[in-house]
Amino acid sequence: MKNEKAILLISCLDKGGIVAEISHFISTYNGNIIHSDQHNDDASNTFFMRIEWNLSGFTIPKDKISQAFEAIAIKFDMKWELKFSSERTKMAIFVSKYDHCLYELLLRNRAGELDADIVQIISNHEDARPIADYFGVPYEVFKITKDTKLDQEQKEIELLESRETDLVVLARYMQVLSPEFEARFRNRIINIHHSFLPAFIGAKPYHQAYTRGVKIIGATCHYVTQELDQGPIIEQDVTRISHRDTVEDLVAKGKNLEKLVLTQGVKLHLEHKVHVYGNKTVVFD
Amino acid sequence: MKNEKAILLISCLDKGGIVAEISHFISTYNGNIIHSDQHNDDASNTFFMRIEWNLSGFTIPKDKISQAFEAIAIKFDMKWELKFSSERTKMAIFVSKYDHCLYELLLRNRAGELDADIVQIISNHEDARPIADYFGVPYEVFKITKDTKLDQEQKEIELLESRETDLVVLARYMQVLSPEFEARFRNRIINIHHSFLPAFIGAKPYHQAYTRGVKIIGATCHYVTQELDQGPIIEQDVTRISHRDTVEDLVAKGKNLEKLVLTQGVKLHLEHKVHVYGNKTVVFD
Amino acid sequence: MKNEKAILLISCLDKGGIVAEISHFISTYNGNIIHSDQHNDDASNTFFMRIEWNLSGFTIPKDKISQAFEAIAIKFDMKWELKFSSERTKMAIFVSKYDHCLYELLLRNRAGELDADIVQIISNHEDARPIADYFGVPYEVFKITKDTKLDQEQKEIELLESRETDLVVLARYMQVLSPEFEARFRNRIINIHHSFLPAFIGAKPYHQAYTRGVKIIGATCHYVTQELDQGPIIEQDVTRISHRDTVEDLVAKGKNLEKLVLTQGVKLHLEHKVHVYGNKTVVFD
Amino acid sequence: MKNEKAILLISCLDKGGIVAEISHFISTYNGNIIHSDQHNDDASNTFFMRIEWNLSGFTIPKDKISQAFEAIAIKFDMKWELKFSSERTKMAIFVSKYDHCLYELLLRNRAGELDADIVQIISNHEDARPIADYFGVPYEVFKITKDTKLDQEQKEIELLESRETDLVVLARYMQVLSPEFEARFRNRIINIHHSFLPAFIGAKPYHQAYTRGVKIIGATCHYVTQELDQGPIIEQDVTRISHRDTVEDLVAKGKNLEKLVLTQGVKLHLEHKVHVYGNKTVVFD
């Protein structure tokens, strides 16, 4: 259990004494807090916390911590999750033909920057198979038509479950997922949209941006919900353009944004730094 | 005429030989080009140019240049304007209660950063009068109600005309101008909208941004057209926010953006660096 | 004491149980934590905390809180400060001829964005007196020559002390303060340097930037120490330039950076969000 | 010669009539200008131009254009280069162990974003060989010690010459090149330095940045000259950091900057948009 860390994610109605109880719990059992972040959302009177402590020396065995913490959780009617740094998230990547986001995720995972095991790549095209082979990740193609969509998604879900997938990342996957699929992985599907949402929702955002004549373009990493491009935003970034840029230039400049913004959003999720509440996020970065 | 410069703004259908003719015209009469920018819009096959040259030594008298250039203009069926650096734009500012954009314009004008004479401040409130007094600019209040709007605007137009106003700047002026007013100053009314357009059109964009949970907010400087917040964009900028920011924080952070973005857009206009075409701009900065 | 808040700034050697003790202290006396930030600097094994709680309902009287907290402070050998939201910092501004930073501070203070009383403006020139008059702030000129410097600074210190000055802000003040002056207001003098430190230390940074041919310029807000431009950095920001920009353009673009970066640094200090340790800062924003 | 374009890069002492002569030359032979950029450096009274025109319909054969243009070049004592869009630059990449910049260049080249043929990868380590194999680029290792450096560089130069290398890109290559090597490829060696130059010259810039406590880090793409990290800057960019970031975090965040800034600088060079003059650049982007 050397260097092993526990991470507690909590949200509940805000009232006095929460921090005192939690920090007392950790210090009583000899845990040393490494990071602690909290946020009080005034509008909804909600308290959010992320607290990370070292398990080396902690006197409750790892598999008993949840049980030990439960009394506090019940007292404050908390929504909570307990994570351990040694338990790597199992991540699947969906991709179509653009491969820049896929490469970015695979390369940065291999460089040790993402705490994930990439267990499966799924596509509606054959194109990215050589990439999967190069990185040694299983690759499966599910062709999608209007008629086959639900059937194919069902097979995708079975495959994802067989891989014990925790997180689905849509790395410029050009199909809209069904509500059934979304419900199966609620708050665990991360998408990259190639605009500064809520500007330019839907198809061909770079064409929309070009037509509107904006001076800045963006990319948005968000959780997928039932409404297209309306899910909770994790991360956004932008870059400057000018009248000299053609649509093709916007696409090329945008690709650099997309890959960085998606990977940053995934990284934050993997480090258990994102709370979803309503249609928004609290991101402790 | 020492240090006097001429600036020619041109747009026309793109075809061969335009640059050759214009630069030949200038060099024939002994003008020295200081800046020259051009752009070819492929989608509409339009050629844009801004060319600036020194009149010291130029052998055509200043008041005959237009006449001399006309043959070229006709040959290529150009839309064109000839400006002189010594002729300062007469600018009027409209303001309501927020005064940060007003101050920014007045201070940077006084610091010599804007080539304009600020000839009039108009408001629907008394609040900014002491500011106008401090800077020695005439201040007039026109209260606006639904019933009086057109009448009041008519008086505003008369006042603006009496001041020979070239440019109207809406510095967080909280009234929508009538189509009649807009038509009177087409492409010569600059507004600041406190969002990253086209996101968050209309009222209370910071509240909209807060509700949507975006991670970046913006400001947009644009020409006013008949459709609200849809005019050609001159300049935009953004700043990063987080879940910690309340609506009030967004308002405060946004004010810094608004004043800089508006002033930058106005500065570009005053330096004759903006072409409007359709609903877009070419900005030679 | 309605809406009154207490803010505790703490640093000490990191060990287990600190957060538990502090949060227990606050909750025992019925305080409700509004914000809490902590940081553990691994290199120096130092723990930093900023904790803010509502005094409405807190059962220790305001003037007894320090005394009550002292036992915990001693136990962990803390460096600590207790601040109250109702106690506004008394701020003096030093300025020379450039007035853009001075205006920004005065305007944003008047707009309620800075929790300070501006009690004095000091300059080595007469130029800014009308600004001080307009904002109703006392203005005093102390001419500085090599020979008179220490004497004049002594008079400045007396004036500042008579105003009970807590914070000195150098708003493009073009004199280097003596070590004696610095020692008198250690960690309470904030300067704006017009470069991206540590690039371009010393005089004429925009000229240096122009000569080096950088593509981005910056501004740095820092605490003044005995070594020129070497003090702990609070805030920095940058803007893009190109080969088209002359030194004068850099100066103009830089002014926008300087005023925003300085004001942001001052704001963070006024909200007691900055810890200085060694030559660095922890900024809880 | 369909879609073939000619690009002329010119610099000379500024005097009247240059643009007129060049544009007249192009239009006389029925060339259509696509892009034209010029810049006048007042300090050195130097005129810079980049002009790009379509060869479809141009009445001088491609291999006679240089000869035809020479009279103008001599008249104005120009330094000039004539490039053709069909002639792809032959680029070699030097790399050590960090592979993020190497991957970025290879991937974006394969995506068609860089107009180059990558003809050789050279390293002082074996590590990147599988990457070279995957992309089908020759890979050669030259171990460098103090004693063998000049000999090994000589062999590198021979290999580069056998590949007709036009451009050498140092993609986090951790060896300093000798003056002899630099002289052989003057203004044709592009390096990425992992700091915002001139801050943090030399070794371990992220450690230096961490120690100084800056709030922003950067990366700089520049031509290599005889003085370490002093060459003409092509492109820079920055990203925000905080007290929470360890040196390892700076390294990870910096890697994203490095790969984008290096590739952008290389792209500008490949598109013949960079003029070097003295120790600075004019970049027409």
UniProtKB/TrEMBL annotation, chains A, B, C, D:
Keywords: Hydrolase, One-carbon metabolism, Purine biosynthesis. Belongs to the PurU family. Gene3D superfamilies: 3.30.70.260, Formyl transferase, N-terminal domain. InterPro entries: ACT-like_dom_sf, ACT_dom, Formyl-FH4-Hydrolase_C, Formyl_transf_N, Formyl_transf_N_sf, PurU, PurU_ACT. PANTHER family: FORMYLTETRAHYDROFOLATE DEFORMYLASE (PTHR42706), FORMYLTETRAHYDROFOLATE DEFORMYLASE 2, MITOCHONDRIAL (PTHR42706:SF1). Residues 7-87 form the ACT domain. One of its GO terms (molecular function) is formyltetrahydrofolate deformylase activity. HAMAP family: PurU. The keyword Hydrolase applies. It catalyses: (6R)-10-formyltetrahydrofolate + H2O = (6S)-5,6,7,8-tetrahydrofolate + formate + H(+). One of its GO terms (biological process) is 'de novo' IMP biosynthetic process. Pathway: Purine metabolism; IMP biosynthesis via de novo pathway; formate from 10-formyl-5,6,7,8-tetrahydrofolate: step 1/1. Its EC number is 3.5.1.10. It is an enzyme of class 3 (hydrolase). Catalyzes the hydrolysis of 10-formyltetrahydrofolate (formyl-FH4) to formate and tetrahydrofolate (FH4). This is Formyltetrahydrofolate deformylase. The active site is at D229. PROSITE patterns: ACT. SUPFAM superfamilies: ACT-like, Formyltransferase.
